[in-house]
Amino acid sequence: MRWIVVATLIAATAACNEPNTPPGNAEAPVANGVLPAGPVTNTSEISANALDAEVVALIERTVPGMVIGDVERKEREGRIYLDVEGKRPDGSEVELDVLQEGVGWRLVEVQRDIAWDKAPGPVAAAARAAPGTFTPERVIESTQTDGTVIYELFAPGRTDEPAMEIRVRDGKAEVLGERWQH
Hints:
Layout: E1 42-46, H1 53-62, E2 67-76, E3 79-87, E4 93-101, E5 104-114, H2 121-129, E6 138-144, E7 149-154, E8 164-169, E9 172-175
Antiparallel strand pairs: 1-2, 2-3, 3-4, 4-5, 5-6, 6-7, 7-8, 8-9
């Protein structure tokens, strides 16, 4: 997949709905400086008690002692995910995203909300260097299984999807011009 490094401008949220920005297309590049709408996702709540033993074991291996809270089943672009929210033994919140592969399940990312002032320096610098920067209302730190970390920055008033995503790999931060797959 080709990654285009661009500065993301968040001056007009209406640009997300312009006719030249195909809705639900994760491969669409940034249009008018704003990430396009993400792919259509069908979401349903499921009971934590309904989780397969394999998924529960995967959760326990990933975050030992995690207390499972809400679970959502998400289907997008032919993939099925489980978003498993819960609390670590220390009480901090965590979310695990698990991808169905055939009859099995694979962890794809571990997420947590962080305060913007707790974001790593290279992430803040990349965001500040982008024209039209903003102070994020919400920041999600998503650690991928390969060690890459994606920071999803939500613009004020736009809490449905991140307005900017920054990838950190090998210590280098870059603003992404396309939505991250997971």
